[in-house]
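INFO batch 0412 | record 1 of 1 | parsing
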Amino acid sequence: MSPPSRLVFDFAGVLFRWRPLVLLQQVLPQRAHDAASAARLAAAIFQGYEGDWADFDRGRVQPDALVQRIAARTGLPAAELRRVVDAVPAELQPQPAVVALLARLRAAGRRLYYLSNMPEVYAQHLERTHEVVGWFDDGVISARVGLVKPEPAIFALAAQRFGAAPAELLFIDDIAANVRAAQAAGWQALQFDDAAQCEAALHARGLLG
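INFO prediction complete | emitting tokens
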């Protein structure tokens, strides 16, 4: 397998911290009072990032409409759901070890891109707040293209936008279904566990000295 010419990173769960169960325990402790209740609440609100939340990621609904849809579906109070939606940006903090890895990749001359399922309001927050977003040559945000991972179309669009054949792209994502979808689209792909594991895999591919 030829070394990739472009590295494509996911945002939430890779570059940025994403701990939905911790978030819910912090924001709604009366409902998410332990790991089990937090997991049930996460399943109800996020639906495995399908359904209502996928429409949010896809740009089809804005925060107010999202809150009302989840409230109608789950019976949870809209005010509580709004607190969850509003708390997400503060949770999405850069992971220092991944930022350091990106810095080393940049120093090695690697071309960096991103492909993220992300609502527009959160994407704008990350762009305004975190300098590391500006380190990338380009990227695709789901809400801006009306597509979400693991749909094949978003990988085809990203490859075209990044100006590379699929086999020249290495996709790094924490979600196994997204990794499999990238591979099915002809990309190279790596499932992210943590920065050390990711760095070791990149070393093994000859992408870091």
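INFO post-check: The chain has a mean pLDDT of 97.
INFO record closed
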